[in-house]
Amino acid sequence: MAAKIAAGEVIDRPVSVVKELVENAVDSSATDISVAIASGGIKSIRVTDNGSGIPSGELELAFKRHATSKITSLDDLERIATLGFRGEALASISAVATAKLSSRTAYQTAGSFVVMNSDGVQSQGRAGMSQGTTVLVTDLFKDIPARFKFLKSEASEASRITTLIGCMAFAYPNIRFSLTVDGKQIFTSKAGAPLRETAALIYSKEVASSMLDVDSELDTPSSERHRVKVLGLISAPTIQRMTRAYLTFFINRRLVQSRSLSAAVESAYQGMLMTGRHPVAVINIEMPYENVDVNVHPTKAEVRFRDDGLVFAAVQRSVRAALIAGTPVPPMVSSSAVKVGAGGMEGAPPQTHYQPQNTSAQTINRPLSTDPQQSMPIGAVPVIAAQTTMLTALPSLRVLGQLGGTYVVAEGQDGMYLIDQHAAHERINFDHAMKEHRDKRVRVQGLLEPVVVQITPHQQSAYISSKAALAEYGFLLEPFGTQTYLVRSVPAMLAQSDPTKSLTDALDFLGGEESRQYDWEQRIALSLVCHNAIRAGKSMTMREMEELVRQLEETDLPHACPHGRPTMLHVSQAHLEREFGRRQ
Ligand code: ADP
Ligand code: MG
Q1: What does the alpha-carbon distance between residue 153 and residue 550 come to, in Å, rounded to a whole number?
Q2: What average pLDDT does range 485-512 have in this prediction?
Q3: Nearest bound ligand to the CA of residue 62
């Protein structure tokens, strides 16, 4: 059996510890599970449940590899109904941290505890406690400097954990979950609450009330083996998020990650979302256990299906059906129009740009219907074959005009320059934010009327961990009730933007995946710039364009936006002459 159960439970970051401990608590039939983390879980993680407990004599055994009490026959592996089934989590955790396991069953008059780390049992004894189990994990990765260094940001660790607990609350509506981050209770779910109520806690009342029900059973008449049932909530297309972090999937209530499930949901929204924006969805898929291979990945996260196409189609169709039922107005953009600007914040290919924020369907569709060439990104038009120039300084440029409301056309010493106005403005804002901060002269805009902002637990955990840094850049907030803050001031460069939107976008970015590749200074600066930059599609006056180009010339890296995409294309004089046959 040991061979069949893939070895090596991977504990790669704090959230995987929390996931294993919470899953154990769920398996123990607990109805109340509380989680407390300090410093993103790096300092400590504590999970307490009121479940069955572990008899004193078996505490030490629980740390042994393959010491699962959950599999009685090999056939069970085919139909795993409990979350834990490898008997490796506690062993793996105590190999990279110090774990104190305290427990008491219903039949014992007192509890007991064992403290375990990679050197073995450190201490043990009796513990006064009520029925259930508490695991306290400290010194995570202390002896593994490489991994410790990898955990760059407490904010994103805390936010991953917050997301996880929110997800567990969705999956197990009959369990009460609570989460405390750095001593502050940020989340409590109500046992027995309907899905939508939990959604209100996790996202916000506004998001939850606008969510659409997904509920369709797609039965292929052939057999029970192909049954796929899709149930959950998805956001209306008006709700759009900066990251995919708000897409949550369960297979038979087991939290899973799956690119193909995310793609299925997003494809159902095709044509309804702005470029680089993502929906919110929480979806449980019920299907026969033997059609899912949950044991593929060591952390059991990435699932594999026996019939991937069947599941993809079921999810896509039921989400699409919910969207059509819930949004009587036709989609805002045609699906082919979306391709023009596909991409965005996350891993966008260099030739893409943002869709305009406030442009009507009319304007977006117009160039497509008249000129099919326009649907190709500029870099792909063979005749121009323009290249991004690698120079570090910009030649001085003379603005000639604007192209498609999106590109500034300019002439320089050596040919023509096409400047992406959004990317250029991002670069300018980013440089300003970084410089002001380095020179300790951050310009702050106080708000005459403080703005009340309600944020999600996910955003709140990002905020708690980046509070000081955000304040240095001008965001001053004051607690104002549960998950609610008063915004007192904003960075001056965001003075013209909606404070609620700039704050929540910044927090989504800070708690998200993409921000991890940057150091904290860049990360905060980046979280501020994108929201505020001129959109593609906004027409600009000559003066405005000249000012944009002048400011771009002054930046340190004028040729790329802070996300690494080019700000400009250059077509050299020589290239023009060759193309027009003036020169060989
Ligand atoms: P697995 O969950 O795969 O069985 P773990 O290493 O996670 O393996 O846990 C080992 C064993 O310890 C479990 O099988 C269970 O018997 C016991 N255990 C762990 N956590 C708890 C808990 N919170 N409540 C009751 N029993 C637990
Ligand atoms: Mg387990």
Answers
A1: 35
A2: 88
A3: 1
Residues 449 and 309 in one domain: no
Q: CATH number for the domain including 99?
A: 3.30.565.10
Would you say residue 237 lies in a domain?
Answer: yes
- State which residues have CB under 5 angstroms from ligand 2, the bound ion: 24, 84, 89
- Dist. CA 25 → ligand 2 center (Å): 8
Instruction: Summarize pLDDT for 344-390 with one digit per residue, the tens.
Output: 333 333 332 333 333 332 222 222 223 333 332 332 222 233 333 33
Q: Is the CB of 90 under 6 A from ligand 1?
A: yes
CB atoms within 10 A of CB 127: 17
CATH number at residue 473: 3.30.1370.100
- For ligand 1, atom 13, which residue shows the shortest CA distance? 68
Cα 84 to middle of ligand 2, angstroms: 4
Q: Tell me what the mean pLDDT of segment 533-544 comes to.
A: 89
**370 located within any domain:** no
**Is position 333 within any domain?**
no
**CA–CA distance, 10 with 89 (Å, rounded to integer):** 8
Helix (H) or strand (E) holding 48: strand 44-49
> Which one, of 253, 312, 243, lies nearest residue 282 by Cα?
253
Residue of 27, 29, 129 best suited for mutating to test ligand 1, as the one with most atoms within 8 Å of CB: 27
Beta pairing partners, 407? 403, 420
Which-ligand-closest: CA of 63?
1
Contact call for residues 280 and 262 (beta carbons, < 8 A):
no
| Residue-number span of the structural domain to which 230 is assigned | 197-326
Q: Do both 55 and 132 map to the same domain? A: yes
CB of residue 54 inside a 6 A radius of ligand 1: yes
State the DSSP code for 556: S
Residue 166 pLDDT: 86
Average pLDDT (26-32) is 94
Choose among 575, 496, 577: nearest CA to 531: 496
Same domain? For 530 and 382 the reply is yes
23 alpha carbon, closest ligand? 2
- pTM for the structure as a whole: 0.60
Cβ atoms of 388 and 350 closer than 8 Å:
yes
- Asked if 169 and 211 sit in the same domain, the reply is no
Please return the burial class of 406, using the count of CB atoms within 10 Å of its CB with bins 0-12, 13-18 and 19+: buried
Tell which atom from ligand 1 comes closest to the C-alpha of 86. 3
Name the domain count of the chain: 3
| Residue 344 lies inside a defined structural domain of this protein | no
State the CATH number of the domain containing residue 255.
3.30.230.10
What percent of the chain lies above the pLDDT cut of 70? 78
pLDDT in tens, 288-300: 877 776 554 545 5
CA of 154 relative to ligand 1 center, distance in Å: 27
Residues 413 and 476 in one domain: yes
Same domain, yes or no: 566 and 453: yes
